[in-house]
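Q: Here's a chain of 129 amino acids. Please give me its 3D structure as tokens.
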Amino acid sequence: MTLDKERAKKYFQNLFLVAIADGKLATEERELLVGVAIRMGLSIRDSATIMRNITQEEFHIPDTEEQQMLHLSDIVKVMMIDKEIHEKEYELCLGYALKIGQSEAMLQEIIEDSKNQNWYKFKNPYPNH
């Protein structure tokens, strides 16, 4: 599965929205975002521009159900990387889950699965980047 630069930017923006939802960007979140940006082929300038110019809290929804579910899993990992689930982060993840036709029960299942994984092994759904 490949991802063009514009979709990579939107994907990164979604992750960043969750990371800053609690009003701060934890060191673990920052490190994770840097790693994701690099794996997706985004330059430091690209990612910095996205972070500086964030003006909306609207998620970009991937095209396929497979991409949507991978993305939900990834934003949950961003929410949990600092080992805290903040209310605003949870609300954003739930909002995304509902937008892609998933339930809160599915979100809870993904959260439980994520608790059993190594959060620093962020799965890159786009291995060609």
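Q: Can you summarize the key feature?
A: DSSP finds six helices and no strands in the chain.
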